[in-house]
Each structure stands twice: as C-alpha cells, then as structure tokens.
Input
Amino acid sequence: MTKRCDQVKAWQVLQQLKVEKQTLDLRNIFASQENRFEHFSLSAPHVFVDFSKCMWDEQVEDALLELAGQTDTEQLRDAMFAGELINTTEQRAVMHWLLRVPNGTRLPLGLEQSHKEVIETLERFLSFAELIRADNTITDVVNIGIGGSDLGPQMAVKALDEFVIPTKRFHFLSNIDAHESLRLFRTLKPESTLFLIASKSFSTLETMTNAALAKEWFLQAGGKHIQNHFVGLTSNTKGANAFGITTTFGFWDWVGGRYSMWSSIGLSIAIAIGEDGFKSFLRGAFEMDHHFKTAGARDNLPLKLGLLDIWYRNFLNYGSRSIAPYHSGLSRLPAYLQQLEMESNGKSVDKFGLQVKYGTAPVLWGEPGTNGQHAFFQMLHQGTDVIPVEFLVVKDPSHTHVKNHELLLANALAQAQAFMIGESKDAKDLQTAPTVKVGDWASHQADSSQHAARRFPGNRPSLFFALERLTPESLGALIALSEHRTFVAGAVWGINSFDQFGVELGKKLTQNIVNQFDVEHPMNIDPSTQGLMIKLKLKSVP
Ligand code: F6P
Output
C-alpha cells in the first residue's frame, strides 16, 4: 500500500535539508555552480523551463526524486494512463488524456471502445464546428458555462487569437449576475447568434439561469428555431432535450470538468480555430502526455515541477505562487490555473479519509506581466512574504513590432533578475552610515528609512517558462504540462485530485436561502445570514 508522503524516508531527508539549505542564497549561487543554468533547465515538447532561479540545489532535487519514488507517484501515473479507477471517492477512471490520443494509436487493453467513442464524438463536433465556420449568418458564438465549462475554452480562444476566424465574435458568459448577460444580449441579434450551453451536469445553477435568460431573450427578440441556435455540450442529454435543445455533443464521467476542454466542451475553441487547429491543440497535449509517461525522472518536466511545488509548499512554507504571463493572450491563464490546481489539490483529507498534516494546494494568483509590475510587484520585491513568481514568455510574437516585443521580454528577464540578485548598494551604504549621536535620532531615522526603503533584498525565487510561439500545439502542451504537474503534487500528497466536494455545501445553502428569500422570518438560518437576508430582500429596496 502506498505510504503517506510524511512517513517515508525522503520526507525526513527533506526536513533535514530544509534546515541545511537555509544558507542557500540565489544572489551568489551561480558563483559556486557555474553550470547551474544548464543543469536546471529542461525542455519538453514545445516548452522550455529554467529552474535555475529556484530556491533549490542538486541535493534537494535528488531527495525530491526519491520522494516521488517512495510515494509511488510514477505508479499512480501509470495507473491513470491504464484507465484504472484512480478517482477513488467517485470510483471513476481519470482519462482526459484519452481525448488527445490520435486515431490509430495503440492503447492499453480495454480502452479501445472508449477511444472509439472519443474519436466518433470528436469527428462529429469538429464537423459541426466546420459547418458553423462556413455559415456566414452566424456572427456571434456565446459559450454559456462556468468553472471547467468556461475557463479553459475562454483562456484558449483568447490565447489563440492569431488563429481565430475573423468573421465571428466569441463571448463567454459564466457569471450568474444578469448585469453581465443583459449587457451582452444588447450587442447580439438572435438570428446571427449561436449559444453553446456547456455543462457536464446540465444542472449547474449559474449556467442554467443564464441559459434560461438567453432563451427568454432569444424568443422576446424575435428569435425562431431554438434548435438551430442552442447547442448542448453535456453528459446529460436528457436535461438538454428538456430545455429544448436537439443538438448535443456528449462526453464521459471519466472527464473531470476542469480537464474537459479537450472534449466537446471545447466546441467554442474548435469553431474559433477550426478542425485542423483543434487537432493541433490535441496533438501538442498528446506530445506532453507522451513525455510525462516516458521521460526519465530527471528529465521529466511535469514531475520536476510538481516536486518543486512540494518543496516550496511543505518545506519552505511558501503559501502562494504568482503567475505572470508576459503575453496578453494568456491573460486568462492565471484564472484557468486557479481552478486546475486549487480545485484539484485544495484538499485536507487523503485518499484514505485521514486528515493530512501538511499543506496542500497553495494560493495561485496573477496578472499579465507588465501590468502586475505596476500593481503588486512592489510586494513581491519588498514585502514580508516570499512568493515565488512564474514568468511565461513567448519568443516569437505574432506581430512585426520587434522592438515592442524586445521590451516585453526584457521586462520579464529584468524582473526575474531583480528578484534573484536584489540591489545591495544601499544596504552597504547603510552599514557604513555614521554612528548616531544622542538627540539625532529623528534625522537618522529619516535618513536610514530613505536608504532602507530603496533596498531590494533579492534572493527571491522564480521560474521562467518559454514557448517558441503561441500556437495551438504549444498551448496544448503547456496546458497538459500544468495538468500533469498538478497530478504529481496531488499524488505525492496522497490526495484525490479528481473530486471537488468542497464546492457542494455552498450550492446547497444557496438553494436553502433562495427558497426562503420571500419568507418573512427565514427558518433554520443563523442570525447573521438571516439579518442580511432581511436587509437584502428586494421588496424593501427603495
Ligand atoms: O464548481 C464545481 C464544478 O462542478 C466544477 O468542477 C465544474 O467545472 C463546474 O462546476 C461546472 O460544472 P458543469 O459543467 O456540470 O456545469
């Protein structure tokens, strides 16, 4: 039976290394390790990562690889790729990777039928995508969905702007706030709009509410033939039919919501970039799957990233990670990664139902690079917490303004450098500052605070990701890399990364509140919530 990570030998070794490595200093680490950049950089299909500015060394790396071995991480990976029921709380296989396997590839025993269905569904929704692309009467495609039925497709359509069909607009409606839907509907015409109702369950409150509003608007605005303008992307065909939808594209219970953009949930991506583009997107991800399955531990990029996450979270106590894409197309990447990692690994019981005694998913957050520089980078450079930053750049832009792109890249490089080396000139000045005489305290304080406020401590870690170009392939590879990195951390922690029961309670309580909003004295509700309900009762709004 797999051992808990905190009970294996490598964990104790890492505890010891944590103490010993307190002296690690990125400001001079390259002086003692000349080939550090070569040693700590790694290429996988379409993605290059420089780990050399990370707070670790070879000894830590070795111990982490031992940890992966002792926690059977690679065995769990192989079980996932064999179609075993590794989502143990729901007794399901985890096979989003199967959605990316090209036709004709040899598969593990017993998965041929599932793959046949995958290919049939793929061909069906890609043909539909091509029909819509060729249909000039459709100018607007609206994806209505939330969480995994929104974040992936939205992020990808934005990222692949260069490849998106120019004659159509793409919109993503997720928020239950009608301000948002009504604002969008004002810009649409029913006869030229196609709604994609993306919901695995076809029961998510936000999506169902927005879909109902869309239908109401469609009919009121003179729309005819719901069946030609509403499509269901769902495992719940019955639910979609009851809504009035006749065209549906399904997927399977072994595809988790946050892992579903490779399935029919990605129809908006397919309409945007076409059949060939979508197949390239799948191919890039498939190449990364192959790398994850076959690369040796030392050269395995998802494995290394996941293990670094363990080191940072459990031994260096970094509670958060900032994502800084230096490409405006990737502006939704931080939001996408938030769901991927925090919904997958934000757990505090292990696979056996036992409370874990170590931290799991860190907080992920971020904004496109240079914007973040002028907002929260102050805190990242000089704040009291060390927050590792992940830079992501794309070498070749899709425009010809080379100077602008150089400036963008230079900003990313300079920021990563600044986090690492800091600025010690003022620190030296401070050390040599004249001794203060009694009575001079106020002027001395002003003086040294001027120095101290300008000091950059440095020794702050970062990771640097680089893509050659942002294409369907490279995006597919990058996203599959993130999925597998999340898998690795969850495997070491011994948690089930594929359920999400933590979202259920809020849904249940919402229903209870909705049911009682009109009641004079809501029952079985705590005084605070009850007080707020009375205050927020719409009837009492002037
Ligand atoms: O918020 C929980 C969740 O179940 C996510 O995991 C999922 O991606 C999202 O809701 C949407 O679910 P559905 O596709 O069933 O509407």
About this structure: Residues 146-149, 199-201, 204, 207, 257-258, 343, 500, 503 surround 6-O-phosphono-beta-D-fructofuranose (CB under 6 Å). Residues 288 and 458 are 34 Å apart (CA to CA). The first helix runs from residue 9 to 20.
